From TrEMBL, chain A:
Gene: nuoK
Catalytic activity as recorded in UniProt: a quinone + NADH + 5 H(+)(in) = a quinol + NAD(+) + 4 H(+)(out)
Name listed for the protein in its UniProt record: NADH-quinone oxidoreductase subunit K
Family matches, as NCBIfam families: PRK05715.1-2 (NF004320), PRK05715.1-3 (NF004321)
Source organism of this protein record: Luteolibacter pohnpeiensis
Summary of the function given for this chain in its UniProt record: NDH-1 shuttles electrons from NADH, via FMN and iron-sulfur (Fe-S) centers, to quinones in the respiratory chain. The immediate electron acceptor for the enzyme in this species is believed to be ubiquinone. Couples the redox reaction to proton translocation (for every two electrons transferred, four hydrogen ions are translocated across the cytoplasmic membrane), and thus conserves the redox energy in a proton gradient.
Family: Belongs to the complex I subunit 4L family.
Keyword Membrane found: yes
TrEMBL record, chain B:
Enzyme class: translocase
Positions of transmembrane segments: 6-23, 30-51, 57-75, 87-109, 162-181
Upper taxonomic lineage: Bacteria, Pseudomonadati, Verrucomicrobiota, Verrucomicrobiia, Verrucomicrobiales
Pfam families, per database record: Oxidored_q3 (PF00499)
Protein name as catalogued: NADH-quinone oxidoreductase subunit J
EC numbers on record: 7.1.1.-
Automatic annotation (TrEMBL), chain C:
Keyword set includes NAD: yes
PANTHER family recorded: NADH-UBIQUINONE OXIDOREDUCTASE CHAIN 5 (PTHR42829)
Residue ranges of every copy of the NADH dehydrogenase subunit 5 C-terminal domain listed in the record: 415-592
Membrane topology: Multi-pass membrane protein
A GO cellular-component term linked to this record: endomembrane system
GO biological process: ATP synthesis coupled electron transport; electron transport coupled proton transport
Keywords of the record: Electron transport, Membrane, NAD, Respiratory chain, Translocase, Transmembrane, Transmembrane helix, Transport, Ubiquinone
Source organism of the structure: Luteolibacter pohnpeiensis
Identification of the protein by name: NADH-ubiquinone oxidoreductase chain 5
Transmembrane segments: 75-95, 102-122, 128-146, 167-185, 197-223, 235-255, 261-283, 295-315, 327-344, 364-381, 401-421, 442-461, 481-501, 578-594
E.C. number(s) listed in UniProt: 7.1.1.2
Length: 105, 187, 595
């Protein structure tokens, strides 16, 4: 049987992968996907804690509630984010972060 | 959940995650994300969070990633293949991730480990007492099943009712936002 | 009433400057105000009193704006407003064709205001303020024809020379304040414990102000140059009133501190000798000048030297009396020269005049009366009475100075005779002089009024009625000797002047040393300006350039620019960099919260 720490480690590794993607990749869609990875990594931790810290013998459903909300917010975020990316691409014909530097001081 | 299944799903998930970064083609990346999320859903189900696992597949893999793919194809990004990655950001990223991993391992090493608590016939029927006698949840629990969806629905509409409604407003706002963002500006 | 006297000219200045600048009313308004102030000054004669209101309070230290009316100030006011009035009237005609009449008369009114302030001031702060204001108005009036470089330079020179003296004056005021604890004239008491050295230092510092304003050696150089201004200005400011302010102020100090203190003080001796030497040097320089105004300017210097000498000899009454008489006849001489210059189309060289007595009888006669007063024709003219008092003071306390004074009297007679003979007698030596006509009534009235004063201001009834300081005549042992000496010097001077210059067409004797004013200007410009000032300027420039400019101004600028540049680079606009920063932040937060 897998222990809590196994799940936490898996979650942490997934988060690290997402983080690395955000820092390394320059395609803004990939960066966006990596953000989703990071959110999911957090979800995994939440579900693991919900399972391993039962309330009244049952998993702590408050944790799963949070996951439910995160997924919903992520869906909304993806919708808005992708709309922004489309608008950006229309305006600049690129979605590469190193070419989107007009906010330079 | 058997230990080998945990390893299987974890490996699928991590390989999917790594290939998101590794692939140059955004479509491959998106498909890697799908793989990753399938593994993740397996882990959720292994943690007895059946509803969340299914949602993960339906919403993320089914809806969100399709949206991603749709956008990638809409934008028709071809030049990605010809780009060379610069060394400096990769090195910085790897160094930072290294530091993060060191922190992660030391945190986990300090955390007291916990085995998964049992979810057998006895615990479940004991939990049935806090629910109304002839409700669906109570009957299921007494039979030794975990009525995951029922419990989530129960929690959602009792404890998190207000939050749910706020979430509805958020989704509405997001919808309006997307419409106004993707509307072509008429000059 | 006294406040009206003080502030009426200021109001006129404001009205002239703000409203009447363009219209032709400014001269009339200024003249009217000068007449009004003269009448007020007459009404205030023989009144005494102290009117004041607090102006500023710093802790226990109070500064009042006050008017002190006493014998000294009311008498002096007659001189200031009387001559001021006549000069205003004279200027109406003299400046008739000037483009900047309004500015000129505004300047005159400003001067009247400032001079009234000095005379009426009840404390040193006020004196100093008005002291500077006279400097300003003098600057404005000397530089009235600022289009001429020489006038602009002369104005600057006058201002700077006065600044040098005023610096000492300021220190002197502070020293005196430290000694007596007050700046109000009638509250000043010198404590017994003060050593005479400190007191001498304080008085000498104050005397610096008088040296600057009354153009004593070594700061006399500005006065001859100041003749670049319009002639009525020279008459009012640089002959009769402002330059006498130093004498007035010194006498005021003597009165406030008590004349006994000055007896035998080292400072008094210094002052007396400065006055004596100035009068001698100026008289020598005057003998070789060709410009009629320059002659009068040096003569003024020399007479001011007399007055300062009298103050130094602790015979301030004699000095003030001489100030009083001198003001009238010197103003007369200047206005006379102004009339001549006006008639000869701005020709100032006496060798291009000649024979003017026949062409301009009024001017000639009044100028003659002024000359007679200046050379102190015995018993008849005012100059005689006052000069005699100074000679008496010198005789009784300092014989060498008496010798100098007698020699100066001879020189004065000599150069004034020269000026008169060359200008008015003989034949005209230029076209301008040939076609000269006598001046109109607006000019001749002030001349005649001043001529009357030049004769009668020395008489007893006049000085009594006008409330002027006049030493009580003492029949000292040397009285006959003094009289004899001055008469002999007068006759010698007259004789020498007539013999040397009668009928001459050009300068028969030439003494370059005197003509070039002992080369003092050259020495100043070469050594003080050339070496001292340039070296100082170089040092200051170096300091300014390196420290202020490079280090402070540019340095600050460059520091903020580079700092901003550094911060600007943080704002790369690159999403990756922001992500890196974001990750670093996460790592730090984990580190801080967990470990």
């Amino acid at each position: 049987m897998a222990s809590l720490n196994n799940y936490l480690l898996a979650s942490g590794l997934l988060f690290a992968i997402g983080l690395a993607g955000v820092v390394i990749r320059r395609n803004i869609i990939i960066v966006f996907m990596c953000l989703e990875l990071m959110l999911s990594a957090a979800n995994l931790s939440l579900v693991a804690f919900s399972r391993f810290h039962p309330v009244n013998g049952l998993p702590d459903y408050s944790g799963q509630m949070l996951v439910f909300f995160v997924i919903t917010v992520a869906a909304a975020e993806v919708a808005v984010g992708l709309a922004i990316i489309v608008a950006l691409y229309r305006a600049r014909q690129t979605i590469h972060t190193d070419e989107l530097d007009t906010l330079k001081g | 959940m058997p230990f080998y299944l945990f390893w299987l799903f974890t490996t699928v998930m991590l390989i999917g995650g790594v290939s998101v970064i590794a692939f140059r083609n955004p479509v491959s990346s998106a498909l890697s994300v799908v793989t990753c999320f399938v593994g993740l859903a397996g882990l959720f189900i292994g943690l007895s969070a059946f509803f969340v696992g299914v949602i993960q597949i339906l919403v993320y893999t089914g809806a969100v990633m399709v949206l991603f793919l749709f956008i990638i194809m809409l934008l028709d990004l071809k030049d990605e293949e010809h780009r060379t990655n610069k060394i400096a950001p990769i090195a910085t990223g790897l160094v930072l991730i290294g530091i993060f991993l060191i922190q992660l391992f030391s945190v986990i090493a300090d955390t007291p480990n916990a085995e998964s608590p049992p979810l057998d016939q006895a615990t479940l029927s004991a939990a049935a007492d806090s629910y109304p006698q002839d409700s669906k949840i109570a009957t299921e629990l007494k039979e030794g099943h975990l009525p995951d969806v029922h419990l989530i629905g129960h929690t959602l509409f009792t404890q998190y009712n207000l939050h749910l409604q706020i979430l509805g407003v958020l989704l509405l706002v997001a919808t309006i936002g997307v419409v106004s963002l993707s509307k072509r500006q008429t000059e | 009433m006294p406040w009206v006297l003080l502030f009426l000219p200021l109001i006129v200045v404001a009205v002239n400057q703000l409203i009447l600048k363009k219209s032709g009313l400014a001269p009339c308004l200024s003249t009217a105000s000068s007449i009004a102030t003269f009448i007020i000054a007459l009404l205030l004669l023989k009144t005494t009193g102290l009117h004041s209101f607090p102006w500023a309070t710093i802790g226990d230290f109070h500064i009042d704006i006050g008017i002190q009316l006493d014998q000294l100030s009311t008498g002096m006011m007659i001189v200031v407003t009387g001559i001021g009035m006549l000069v205003h009237i004279f200027s109406l005609a003299y400046m008739k064709d000037d483009d900047a009449k309004a500015r000129y008369f505004t300047g005159l009114s400003l001067f009247m205001f400032s001079m009234t302030g000095i005379v009426l001031a009840s404390n040193f702060i006020m004196t100093f303020i008005f002291w500077e204001l006279v400097g300003v108005s003098s600057y404005l009036l000397i530089g009235h024809w600022y289009q001429k470089d020489s006038a602009a330079d002369a104005a600057k020179k006058a201002f700077l020379c006065n600044r040098v003296g005023d610096f000492g004056f300021m220190i002197g005021i502070l020293l005196l304040w430290g000694i007596t604890g007050t700046l109000t004239f009638d509250q000043m008491v010198v404590p017994e414990t003060i050593s005479s050295g400190v007191l001498s230092a304080a008085i000498l510092c104050i005397f610096c102000g008088a040296v600057g304003k009354s153009a004593q050696l070594p700061l006399h150089v500005w006065l001859p140059d100041a003749m670049e201004g319009p002639t009525p200005v020279s008459a009012l400011i640089h002959a009769a009133t402002m330059v006498a302010a130093g004498v007035y102020m010194m006498f005021r100090v003597q009165l406030s501190l008590g004349t006994d203190i000055f007896q035998g003080l080292a400072a008094s001796t210094v002052i007396a000798w400065v006055g004596g030497i100035t009068s001698l040097a100026a008289a020598l320089m005057a003998t070789q000048q060709d410009d009629i105004k320059k002659i009068l300017a040096y003569s003024t210097l020399s007479q001011l030297g007399y007055m300062i000498m009298a103050v130094g000899l602790v015979a301030g009454e004699a000095g003030m009396f001489h100030l009083f008489t001198h003001a009238w006849f010197k103003a007369l001489l200047f206005l006379g020269s102004g009339a001549i210059i006006y008639a000869c189309h701005h020709e100032q060289n006496i060798w291009k005049m000649g024979g003017l007595l026949r062409k301009m009888p009024t001017t000639g006669i009044t100028f003659g009366i002024g000359t007679a007063a200046l050379i102190a024709v015995p018993r008849v003219t005012s100059g005689f009475w006052s000069k005699e008092e100074i000679l008496a003071a010198a005789w009784s306390s300092n014989k060498p100075l008496f010798g100098i004074a007698i020699f100066v009297a001879f020189l004065t007679t000599f150069y004034m005779t020269r000026a008169y003979v060359v200008t008015f007698l003989g034949k005209p030596r230029s076209k301008d002089a040939e076609h000269a006509k006598d001046v109109g009534p607006l000019m001749s009235f002030p001349l005649m009024a001043l001529a009357v004063m030049a004769i009668f201001s020395g008489y007893g009834f006049m000085s009594q009625n006008l409330n002027v300081y006049r030493p009580s005549v003492e029949e000292t042992g040397g009285h006959t000797i003094i009289l004899a000496a001055s008469v002999i010097s007068l006759l010698l001077g007259l004789a020498a002047g007539f013999i040397v210059y009668q009928g001459k067409q050009k300068e028969p004797i030439s003494i370059p040393l005197f003509k070039n004013r002992f080369y003092l200007d050259e020495i100043y410009s070469k050594y003080i300006v050339g070496y001292l000032q340039d070296a100082l300027a170089a040092i200051i420039h170096f300091f300014d350039e390196l420290f202020i400019n490079r280090l402070v101004v540019d340095g600050l600028g460059r520091a903020s620019v580079s700092l901003g540049d550094w911060f600007r680079r943080l704002q790369s606009g690159s999403l990756q960099r922001y992500a890196v920063a974001f990750v670093i932040g996460i790592l730090l937060i984990i580190y801080i919260t967990v470990f």
